[in-house]
Amino acid sequence: MAGLFITFEGGEGAGKSTQVKRLGDYLSAAGRQVVLTREPGGAPGAEAIRKLLVEGAASRWDGVTEALLHTAARRDHLVKTVWPALEAGKIVISDRFVDSTTAYQGYGHGLDVAMLEMLYKAAIGTFRPDLTLIIDVPLDIGLARAGARGGVENRYENMDRKFHERLRDGFLTIAKLEPARCKVIDGARDADQVQADVRAAVDGALKRHG
Ligand code: TMP
Questions:
Q1: Strand order in the sheet with 182-186
Q2: How many domains does the chain fold into?
């Protein structure tokens, strides 16, 4: 596809949303056509599924059901929002994508990662992001930031500390397994420094993309 698909990943309170917005502003100012989106969500049907996933008790869904809901939301998001924009040559930046399923449902909740890969392949195929930026922060910083945010979208934040540790290790493992696609960025620094690394990685990807 003509456009470029960039995803941001990380645990709770990594600061992804701020970085996504600032990257969007930077690319728009450079004259690029940019679509900012998020998962779960990013299309009307997928946003309705999001509500089921991020609200309510931590025990609301069993792991497989949860993975199926995320996958359903992801397909709707791709079909309705991401693929049309990429075909039109735009840069699409998504706050989370499939690595969140691998990290949260796989490494976090202990679902078989190979099963999750099969699910992705069956529902979506071989499509992958061109670049994935993993914003990594120590647990205490991330959970403190996420807690300060408040609101009703706290189902995942309320899972125990060990879960969040597995999650962080999971994202770092994904980055090691796919170094050409994934770049880990230290998110514990101030937002300007993080953004400088984000822009350097994206400028590199744009150069390679042509
Ligand atoms: P957000 O807080 O970054 O908007 O993400 C919503 C929550 O959904 C977050 O706690 C991570 C979780 N999530 C998964 O567990 N699996 C997934 O595949 C995705 C996209 C998100």
A1: 34-38, 91-95, 4-9, 131-136, 182-186
A2: 1
Tell me: the pLDDT tens digits for 34-67? Answer: 999 999 999 999 999 999 999 988 889 999 999 9
Residue 149 neighbours by CB under 8 Å, 6+ apart: 13
Ligand 1 pocket test: pick from 37, 52, 54 the residue with the most ligand atoms within 8 Å of its Cβ.
54
Buried b (16+ CB within 10 A) or exposed e, 26-43: bbeeeeeebbbbbbbbbb
**Structural domain of 94:** 4-209
Alpha-carbon distance of 68 to 116, in angstroms, equals 9
The answer to whether the CB of 156 is under 6 A from ligand 1 is yes
pTM for this structure? 0.95
Taking CA atoms, 5 is separated from 35, 82, 85, 188, 205, in Å, by 10, 8, 10, 25, 10
CA–CA–CA angle 70, 136, 96 (5° rounding): 25
Identify the CATH number of the domain in which residue 144 sits. 3.40.50.300
Instruction: Report which ligand 1 atom has the smallest distance to the Cα of 155.
Output: 10
136 lines ligand 1 (CB under 6 A): no
101 within ligand 1 shell (Cβ under 6 A) = yes
Distance CA 193, CA 186 (A): 9
